[in-house]
Amino acid sequence: FITKDGTAKDVCAIRPEFNKSNTFYLFNHVDIIITYHKESERNWSTARLVAARLDPQSYKHSDENHLTCSGP
């Protein structure tokens, strides 16, 4: 959401193209990047989360029967 005075809230604050005042933005896609570290060579079932990054995106699908994430 961008407030009436132009203050960006949540995700809009990290994406400069979402800047229209008094506007809600709805994202239809999220890219998720997970970084982890395995604890030891002997115990493959244990890992620690190092970082998680979520990048919201929106795609304008030109054909509802063939949805792709390659559009604008």
UniProtKB/TrEMBL annotation:
* A Pfam family of this chain: EMP70
The UniProt similarity line reads:
Belongs to the nonaspanin (TM9SF) (TC 9.A.2) family.
Q: Which InterPro entries match?
A: EMP70
Q: Which UniProt keywords apply?
A: Membrane, Signal, Transmembrane, Transmembrane helix
- GO-annotated cellular components: membrane
Q: Which domain of life is it from?
A: Eukaryota
Q: Where does it live in the cell?
A: Membrane
Annotated membrane topology is: Multi-pass membrane protein
Q: What is this protein called?
A: Transmembrane 9 superfamily protein member 2
Where is this chain primarily localised? membrane
Originating species: Mustela putorius furo
Which taxonomic lineage does the organism of this UniProt entry have? Eukaryota, Metazoa, Chordata, Craniata, Vertebrata
